Automatic annotation (TrEMBL):
KW Iron-sulfur (keyword) present: no
Protein name, UniProt field: Protocadherin alpha-5-like
PROSITE patterns assigned to the protein according to its UniProt record, in alphabetical order: CADHERIN_1 (PS00232), CADHERIN_2 (PS50268)
SMART domains noted in UniProt: CA
Membrane topology designation: Single-pass type I membrane protein
InterPro entries: Cadherin-like_dom, Cadherin-like_sf, Cadherin_CS, Cadherin_N, Protocadherin/Cadherin-CA
PANTHER family the record matches: CADHERIN-87A, PROTOCADHERIN ALPHA-5
Transmembrane regions: 571-591
Keywords, alphabetical: Calcium, Cell adhesion, Cell membrane, Glycoprotein, Membrane, Repeat, Signal, Transmembrane, Transmembrane helix
Subcellular locations according to the entry: Cell membrane
Chief location bin: membrane
């Protein structure tokens, strides 16, 4: 649709107003106004409604208002969303003589984070009367001065602005003086008393006038000053300057002693009445005198103190040229010094809101912090740009003028990098440019994204049978790369059936340490191998479970007594023990074979039935002769019995009942023997 600007002025004005309102809404800014000195609770605006926020959302979304200056001037009622005056607002204290005065607010709401800028204009009221710098002004006027001679007097000042500061002057009725008010290029009032008729010192030596200043406010406020005029005799020509106003431009930070201007005044008189001395006028403020000095003889004005554009960029200096007569006359001029800005201020940064720590699973574009920048300089010297430490998963996004958001630009992994030390650099547009840095420490908060992992996928443990109940078998260990509760691992036994019984009746696992315990004695003849699984689980809110593929405990057969402890046997130790045991058995067999192969002594074998050899249930050998030998372990009860028989046999008839000597040397060992030793025969 195309809109035409043809039509009545009213319709064009209405369309322009609508376009302006739409632009302000799109920019995320609101504007209100409030008069200064408004009472506590004065209504300013329905800020929640104007921002499109529901009243019920203000508290859950952490609605809050922040101000760059005093934050207690305005407040928001979270019940009705109304912005109201909270404390006394003095426009003159807040903004001085500036024509524009406003309170800049930042409205922050979260979930999601939104930032709104609100500007509240403070309207001036006529609460300050005009004031004169001096309540009594003294003038010395020679009686010879001609009518229409002019004599400057000091005007009043009003802290208000606009019409409230537009002053009108009047003088109390008298027969000698009128008041003339002029406005210069700087729109400043110059007051002059105009002599209506000649003075006669012999008739009246002193005149008292009342000067009244009235502002343009409603209601009007007034201020007064006394003008005391002393009539002088003789010297009738006052010094005169080339100009009434001198304009000077000067760079700030100019060194002390630098010449500002050289003034020149002349006097038409002769002799001493023509000699001129230069002084600061009595109305010059002390802060101006602290910045400049004047040479009374030459009229040179030089820099005396530090000139800072940001503190004050304009100085008005009233100069008096006084002749050296007995009754001196004075000439007046004004020097206006305007300072030019140089880039002498580095940018300033303020981090107004931090949302830390940042979870490692935070999505890209998550706002981490809000950064505002400013520069006290002006022009290009105050144009600030910001940059961030390179090669980090963050970036700066410009939101409004001089406002930036620190946002997440990539994925985070706490296990790789747990914290970032970011450096934000603000650089102005001056030449050479100045910069400032601010550090932002971003801590990455852990989320439960790692499952526990065991040190090894399978554990093999050898256990002696007949272990005592509750004996510690071994310990499993799992680690979690997360932190705190997410890394606290607990262990549990994966239940299953072992034959007709539950696995938990055999072993148990301590949840805190992963220690595995045998709950009952294990019997090698009943159970040679026990396989079971242990699971590890972290304590995170979103629990990740990790499970060892298989953990096995194996019981070896043997007649271990009830006091024997369960042991973990290294594979190499098992091989060594088996080798030594085998060597010991072979030695014993070889020894027996040699004994049996030796020639028997005569009469060793007599007639009769050969000895009977049989095996007992315990694995021992016995014969008809009551002689036997026992081989046992050096530790505890014997592991097995070994019966060794004499190779000599009684002689008797040899038939199928005869038994070969090598069969008498057979040894049966039911388990591995440690420290085997020979025990004397038992008869």
């Amino acid at each position: 649709m195309i809109y035409s600007w043809r039509g009545s002025p009213v319709s064009r004005r209405l369309l322009l107003w609508l376009l302006l309102a739409a632009w302000e809404t799109g920019s995320g800014q609101l504007r209100y106004s409030v008069p200064e000195e408004a009472k506590h609770g004065t209504f300013v605006g329905r800020i929640a409604q104007d921002l499109g926020l529901e009243l019920a959302q203000l508290v859950p979304r952490l609605f809050r208002v922040a101000s760059k200056g005093r934050g207690d001037l305005l407040e928001v009622n979270l019940q009705n969303g109304i912005l109201f005056v909270n404390s006394r607002i003095d426009r003159e204290e807040l903004c001085g003589r500036s024509l524009e005065c406003g309170i800049h607010l930042e409205v922050l709401v979260e979930r999601p984070l939104q930032v709104f800028h609100v500007e509240v204009e403070v309207r001036d009221i006529n609460d300050n009367p005009p004031k004169f710098f001096r309540q009594e002004q003294r003038l010395f006027i020679l009686e010879l001065r001609m009518p229409d001679s002019r004599f400057p007097v000091e005007g009043a000042s009003d802290l208000d602005i606009g019409a409230n500061a537009e002053l009108r002057y009047k003088l109390n009725p008298n027969e000698y003086f009128d008041l003339d008010v002029k406005t210069n290029e700087e729109e400043a009032n110059f007051l002059e008393l105009v002599l209506k008729k000649s003075l006669d010192r012999e008739e009246t030596q002193e005149h008292r006038l009342l000067l009244i200043a009235t502002d343009g406010g409603q209601p009007e406020l007034t201020g007064t000053a006394q003008v005391l005029i002393t009539v002088l005799d003789a010297n009738d020509n006052a010094p005169k300057f080339d100009k009434s106003i001198y304009n000077v431009r000067l760079l700030e930070n100019t060194r002390n002693g630098t010449l500002v201007i050289k003034l020149n005044a002349s006097d038409a008189d002769e002799g001493v009445n023509k000699e001129i001395a230069y002084f600061f006028s009595n109305i010059v403020a002390d802060d101006v005198k602290s910045k400049f000095t004047i040479n009374s003889n030459s009229g040179e004005i030089n820099v005396k103190g530090e000139l800072d554009y940001e503190d004050c960029n304009l100085y008005e200096i009233n100069i008096d040229a006084v002749d050296r007569s007995t009754f001196p006359l004075t000439g007046h001029c004004k020097v206006i010094v305007k300072l030019l800005d140089v880039n002498d201020n580095a940018p300033e940064m303020a981090i107004t809101s931090l949302f830390l720590p940042v979870k490692e699973d935070a999505p890209v574009s998550t706002v981490i912090a809000l950064i505002s920048v400013s520069d006290r300089d002006s022009g290009a010297n105050a144009q600030v740009t910001c940059s961030l430490t390179p090669h980090v998963p963050f970036k700066l996004a410009s939101t409004f003028k001089n406002y930036y958001s620190l946002v997440l630009d990539g994925a985070l992994d706490r296990e790789s990098v747990s914290a970032y030390q970011l450096v934000v650099t603000a650089r102005d547009g001056g030449s050479p440019s100045r910069w400032a840095t601010a550090s932002v420490a971003v801590e990455v908060a852990d989320v439960n994204d790692n499952a526990p992992a065991f040190a090894q996928p399978e554990y093999t443990v050898f256990v002696k049978e007949n272990n005592p109940p509750g004996c510690h078998v071994f310990t499993v260990s799992a680690r979690d790369a997360d932190a705190r509760e997410n890394a606290r691992v607990s262990y549990a036994l994966v239940e299953r059936r072992v034959g007709a019984r539950a696995l938990s009746s055999y072993v148990s696992v301590r949840a805190e340490s992963g220690e595995v315990f045998a709950l009952q004695p294990l019997d090698h003849e009943e159970l040679q191998l026990l396989r079971f699984q242990v699971s590890a689980r972290d304590a995170g809110s979103l629990v990740d479970g990790g499970q060892a593929p298989q953990a096995a405990s194996r019981a070896l057969a043997g007649s271990a007594g009830p006091g024997s402890a369960l042991v973990d046997v290294n594979v190499y130790l098992i091989v060594a023990i088996c080798a030594v045991s085998s060597l010991l058995v072979l030695t014993l067999l070889l020894y027996t074979a040699l004994r049996c192969s030796a020639p028997p002594p005569e009469g060793a074998c007599g007639p009769g039935k050969p000895p009977l050899v049989c095996s007992s249930a315990a694995g021992s050998w016995s014969s008809s002769r009551p002689r036997r030998q026992r081989v046992c372990s050096g530790e505890g009860p014997p592991k097995t019995d070994l019966m060794a028989f004499s190779p000599s046999l009684p002689q008797g008839p040899t038939s199928t009942e005869n038994v070969s000597l090598k069969n008498l040397n057979y040894i049966s060992i039911s388990s591995v023997l440690y420290n085997i030793k020979y025990v004397s025969p038992i008869y």
